[in-house]
Structures are given as C-alpha cells and as structure tokens.
Amino acid sequence: MRGTAYSQSSEPGHWRPTPPNTDARPKFGIYQPFSGAELLDLPVAPPPELGSPAYLALVAETRSVGSANSKERTEAQTATAQFFASQISSLNFLDLAIRLLAARPAPQDIWDSARTMALMSFALSDSYVLYSRAKERFHFWRPITAIQQGGFGVTRDPDWQPLIETPEHPEHPSAHATECMAGATVLRLVLGSNPQPITYVATDAFFQPSRDYPSLMALANECADSRVWAGAHFRTANDAGQKLGEAIGVYVVGHLLRPLNENK
Hints:
The chain is 48% helix and 5% strand.
C-alpha cells in the first residue's frame, strides 16, 4: 500500500501525536476515490479559528462532556461513546445493509441487492479516502492537545484526559461521522427515505452488542455525537464529517450503477 505520514507540528492548532503514543507516525493510504468524487468538489468546512468564540465554545463543550471523569455526561452518553469507539462503522454498516435487504418482502430482485451492496462498498471506501485527505489538509489538533496546551482563551489543564484513548491521526473531520452518514445516506436513498426502526449490530464487538434506533439518520447522528462524548473530537469535526459523508452517499448513488432502463 502506498502511504504517507500525516503532517505534524508543534505549532498551535496543528496536530501532533497524542498520549499514550507520542512517538507515533501514522500513515494514510494514497488512493483515488472509486466513485470519481474529489475532495475539492465536496463540502468540507474548515475547523474554527483559534481563539474565536466558536472555538472557545467547542473546547468548553468537549472539555465538559468528553473528559474521563465528566459529571455532565450521562450514563447513556458514556455507554454510547464506548460502544462506537470499540467497533468498526464501515464493517457494521455493511452488515446492516445485508440485514435490511434480507428483511424485504419476497420476491427480491438480485440486481437491487447486488447494487445496494456495491454502492455501500464504494461509499464507505471513498469515505476513508476523502476524510483521510481532509485530515491531512487541515491537520487540526485534538481536544486533548488543545486543552492540555491551553492558550487562545483556553485555560490550560495538563491533567485533562478524554473518556477514550485519542485516535492516532488528525482531528478534522471525524472519521466516524463521515462513515456513518455515508452508509446511512446510501441506505436511505436506495431503500427508501421513510423512517423505520433500525437495529445496529456491532458484529466485531464481544457478544455482538446491538442498539436500536428510530431511523437511519438517528443512528448516524448518535454515531457522530458519540465522538464528542468520548472526548475525541470537537463538534465541528462531526458536522464536517456528516456533510462529507452525505455528499459521498448522494454522489455514489447518483452516479454509479444506474439502471439501464433509466436511459430508455
């Protein structure tokens, strides 16, 4: 696999490896998006300016609800943060697609099923390619660094720790938010936009725990929110990831594997 190390710097606002592995040199794959979608054509808003009111509000939120010993985070939010941190969203969205397809009334069209699974694979693969490029482009620091270093209106707290161990790559946008929204968007567009109860199963987690949601969008939103509750992200990274994921899903469904009868 071709790859390059994420840029790192000791400059304020720039990403650098976080505890416990401060010597990490993580790499990301250099690939072209399968769908042909390019980063510059998709919406990825930048992180906030250091010291701005938006930045200070974001840091305050993650400092409060994302800390290891937070008194503001509920037990349900803690459980959600730990649930999404310990499983692979792309793998489990493919499992969700299989279960939703299998639950459809007979007879089932093998073309529709094959197309759905292919589009899901394209969208989730492109999510990795595009959010990795965006992370490198913005190379924004993680909450643990911003809070422990302080400055720009943020009170320094060298002892602050997040609920979960911080992933070893830049902060903006959120990978979880991108993948979950991309998967949810493809399923919504292909299987229908009417809200329906969803059971999301973490097939790669011990005893395969599951969580129930009233809709695909509710699932995608909680997946994104979990990263703030985990102390791994600022909310702007979630917002940017969700917009990117939705754009990927819309692009993939709109441009790839279109039925031939649409041209008649």
